Amino acid sequence: MAWKKIYELLKKDILLEWRQQYAFYGIILYVGTTVFAVYMMNGTPGAKVWNALFWITQLFISVTAVAKSFLQEPVQRFRYYYTIVHPNHYLMAKMLYSILLMFLMSLVSLIVFNLLLGTPFTQVGLFILISFTGSCNLALVFTFLSAIAARTNQNASLMAILGFPIIIPFLMMLSNLSLTVLSPVYQPGWWMIILLLVLLDFLIVILGLILFPYLWKE
């Protein structure tokens, strides 16, 4: 029953996003414009610059796309959800939706970066795995922070204040992990960083499941 409720809530968010396609296409336009501007100003960058640009773009995509998951919900709708669903089911549905959205945005970013800025890495499959892992990190962090901000008088600035100090270590680990793929020499130990990122994802989910019911009651 729990997974069925989570699936119904996830389906609801996907249908709402499908009906409001301007937001989705706006994010794609943002990615394309950013990459095209970099290409016009700098041409094809080196591997380190390419890597930094990719993760900075992913960061702002997550702020634009994922962070609105709770902030766009009016207070009246929260009260309605409070009467029909468990708070943890609602949070899990939002997190799964954010992960799916960031996976799609990461794929779009990789395609646009490849078309305009080239491909500096040789291990394509491994870099896609890293990008999807990073997308999951960004999605979970900003979904949880969006839930906190939404329950504090819709204060989006609180999400930015809390989010960037938390997300900077994630970005540093993801950037260093990506550089091991961009390097022509095999770098051992990269899988331990991926394992650490996955463990941090589980920690964020557990923390959200513990704290969100208290926020839900406010």
Q: How many strands appear in the DSSP assignment?
A: 0
Give the total of domains. 1
Q: What percentage of amino acids are in beta strands?
A: under 5%
Q: Give the overall shape.
A: globular
| Regions with little confidence, pLDDT below 50 for 5+ residues | none
Radius of gyration: 18 Å
User: Into which percent range does the helicity of residues fall?
Assistant: over 70%
Largest sheet, if any? none
What's the number of helices?
A: 9
End-to-end Cα distance: 26 Å
**SS-based structural class?**
mainly alpha
Mean pLDDT: 79
What sequence of helices (H) and strands (E) makes up the elements? HHHHHHHHH
Give a verbal description of the structure:
By secondary structure, the chain is mainly alpha-helical. It has one domain (2-217). Helix content is 85%, strand content 0%. It has nine helices and no strands. The chain is globular, with a radius of gyration of 18 Å. The mean pLDDT is 79.
